[in-house]
Amino acid sequence: MNRRTALTTLLAGASAPLLAACSSGITSLKGNGAGGDSGNSSGGLVIGTANFTENQILGYLYAGVLSAAGVKATVRPNLGSREIVVPALRSGDIDLLPEYQGSLLLYLDKKATETEAGAMQNALATVVPDGLEVLPYAAAEDRDSFAVTRETAERYGLTSLDDLRRTSGKLVFGAAAEMKKRVVGLVGLKDKYGVEFKEFKALDSSGPLVKGALKKGDVDVANVFTTDVDIKENGWVLLADPRHLVPAQHIVPLIAARKADTKVRRALATLGNALTTADLTELNRKVDKDKKDPDRVAAAWLSQRKLG
């Protein structure tokens, strides 16, 4: 799938009233002030996804619940990283993205300090660019994590990111290229934990490249997602995060306000309440391990839950 050319438009923050978030993520059907319920989905929505399995699955789940609600929805999968898909959403090339609370907030506001889900939802409402809106977040969550093999953990006495300070200059870190400049990446690891690595290898996001490199010993520390089934299967050790570098990462729809009418809001809210972290992990397994197509995996789950 061809990636879109990244737009270089600088994102500008937009003021909006705060949301009153609750544990399930369902807040209100009125939105965050970036268009209220004045949206119109009659022309259909184009859903974009990032370039990793889980985000593609989420894109097809969004499309499925929207189609069941009578909204025409198409998916453009595997467009690229956040640095590509968010500008594409803002420019109108796509209408909806499955996003992650903490990563999205830090992308929009590098100085953000919120780590709790409700506080981040409120913060997102104040920094989302004009014309966009964050809808209520889902029960499902998928955090970034930093994994080492059990052998590496035992050799260096690693149980948390704090322990990495003792190994500075000895270990190789593998992750997607954008992690080199992200707060939840090299920047935050140095600022919060004082960690510097011998080398950074630009690979992929919890994908076959970085996981293969960790298995082979080509990297010592790998950035993987907590819903990745390979963590348990390989016995990898996830390093604890006592200084709260990694914020909550509930799934959250980021949408063009012009499309966010009541029909769309209700459909995505229903999905958000039904989808759990365990569900997301299992859906990832079916695609990554059983080699099933993400669109079919999503359709089967929605059918089973009577959502699509």
Automatic annotation (TrEMBL):
Alphabetical UniProt keywords: Signal
ABC-type glycine betaine transport system substrate-binding domain segment(s): 45-304
Alphabetical list of PROSITE patterns matching this protein: PROKAR_LIPOPROTEIN
InterPro entries assigned to the protein according to its UniProt record, in alphabetical order: ABC_Gly_betaine_transp_sub-bd (IPR007210)
Signal sequence interval, chain numbering: 1-20
Gene3D superfamilies tied to this protein: Osmoprotection protein (prox), domain 2, Periplasmic binding protein-like II
CDD domains linked: PBP2_ProX_like (cd13606)
Pfam families registered for this protein in UniProt: OpuAC
Protein name (database record): ABC transporter substrate-binding protein
